[in-house]
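Form 12-C: Joint structure prediction
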Amino acid sequence: MSMLALLLAAAGFACLAMAMERHHRDVAGHAPPTPRRRLLQVLGVLGLLASLLASIAAWGVAQGFVGWCGVLAAGAGAMVLWLSFRSPTKPAPRPSSRS
Amino acid sequence: MAASSRSPATGTPPAKRVPRGSGHALLWARGLLGLLGGYAVAACWAAALARLLPGAKADATLVATMAAFVVYALAAIWAYAARSTLRATLGLLLAGGIGALLAWLLRGGVG
Amino acid sequence: MSNLGGIRQSQSVLHTWSGLVVGWVLFLIFIAGTAAYWKEELTRWMQPEIGLPASSATAVTQAQQFLARTAPDAQRWSIDLPDARSSATSVSWQPQGEKERRRGQRNPNQATLDADGKPVQVRETRGGNFFYRLHFDLHYVPVLWARWFISACSMLMLIALISGVITHKKIFTDFFTFRRGKGQRSWLDGHNALAVLSLPFHLMITYTGLITLMTLYMPWAVDANYPGGRDAFFAELFPRAEKAEASGVAATPPALAEVLRRAEVQWGGGHAASLQIEHPSDSAMRISVRRHQGDQIAGAADALSFDARGNLLDAAAPRSAAVITRDGMIGLHAARFAPTTMRWLFFLSGVAGTLMVATGLVLWTVKRRTQLPDPARPHLGFRIVERLNIGFVTGLPVAMLAFLWGNRLLPLDVANRSDAEVKVFFYAWAACVVHAMLRAPRRGWVEQLALAGVLALGLPLYNLVAWHGGAVSALAAGDGAKAGIDIGLLLMGASLLWAARKVHRFVPAQRKPRAARTGASAAAGASA
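Section 2 - Result
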């Protein structure tokens, strides 16, 4: 159940990230059209709320909110790493390459 | 505002540089104000809230202490955000003074 | 006039100064505190002589039998029960006529019992508690001074967090942004990401940390309401039961497992952490059962008292809202309530906080270097800061791993063994600081990262070879704690070696290879 909360948070953040022009461009090559943006934002928020419910199911009400903050951090962190490492950095120019 | 930049023109965009008055002296002044002045303001309000808050003495004491750290943070932020060092100092004196006055007025009357 | 600029700029200055002045201390607090989330598991790992514990009911019965055999006439018995995270039952007793021992004094009247109730010789070690204490009591300094100093640094951390949020213009637009390979921009992106994504945790941990030490650092509310002295305040908060007087009539204690069960019923399904019996051979005995602090977020070690026949004497008065709030804050900080998955989330947030401080420290040197009149020849102050960064950011992990190695390699019969392990920590740290001072910065980073990686990877391998199969056998026995530490060390070691490789292979974009080898380019803009 806590795993479900993590997955839902990651999915929710993925939607929210894609709703941002900068990241949509990175992934899809063009800015998102407005209807798609709205949809992604709604899905993203729903995903995060669903992960809150999953956290409460896993840990109870009080601890669920506390755990949810950690779940959100992990989910968002996963998204940051995914978006960052999708595109390899252009290596700095160097005269000789080292193996 | 005398903004004497201390960095050479190495291409750092000017918008990122923080305008400094008299360099380090200003930072020290604000820093001490924030650190020590903020603490003094928080201490005054800890005492004031302890006597002001309703409820059992021990409980009011706890809440007042917990709130004091928020006061400290706000005071420190004010010390840096205020538009001049004079305003910063006056603001802290005022805030601390009100707290101390409240605490003094309520002395001996706590249930 | 003497303006610091607009609100964002003024807060940027505040943020940099409040963070930097105490950055190294904050790094120590974060890294030791984060490790302390696993302190029970670390203690278990550091005492490999014992295996999995028995259940509390079994353990308390075994403890009772042991104490009845060993110290039937003692004036006090004390039993610490094992829980899901810790290994062993600890018993101690106070013989008739002896004064109570102060904390920290060695106590010969104690024993550790394994899952079969037999006393075990475990190696003397501070265990994970060393890291726990280190992060607020420091070491080698009086505890009050250390806590005062830590409180002051935590206050600056709180200010740094708030001013950091105010000054971060693009907190939403840059939420998912981490641009690699772009030098200072990358360090800033990393610092921001680590800070913003776990912002609730960072704010919570800093504020609640202050709350745990608040009566020391901000006693003015207490002084205002209790002009006669602070003791009156503490007496009101923590009322002490009067000590029972021996009646002279002999008796034996009731079955403690039954007393335990009654306590758990009284708590509505809670768990006991420890038991104390005053005058266990007398009919006026008082049995106190303390609740486990991990039962609730607002965990408190409230005690229930039972008499010689196992009847409940009194239930503690319910806590007021203010006390529950305070206990809740302390509970959030220590996270004793957290089950394993949530504990991992707390730990990861702690790692994020540690790296946030580290990236802040490095970012400062990276940024400052661009402002130097001659970047190839920095002045002494900058050079010292740059090297102390290494001494802390990589030196402390090396020292912590050396501590674990000391636990494995120090002979079991060394006098004051737990102090010896602590010495290993400090010697290793000092050596790292000296190394950082002597080496060119880039070499310093690479060598210490690599050393830390090797030390981390070596421990689980050592366990496999020298400790009956290490993580593999621990997993087979269902000992998640021991296996978890080993696996964590493997991951940590791999990450450290990866980082070392990254720094080693990095070539600053605009410099010629010749300049790169003088090391003056240091860790400038190393892509994370």
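Section 3 - Comments
Chains A and B do not touch (no CB pair under 8 Å). Residues 1 and 58 of chain A are 5 Å apart (CA to CA).
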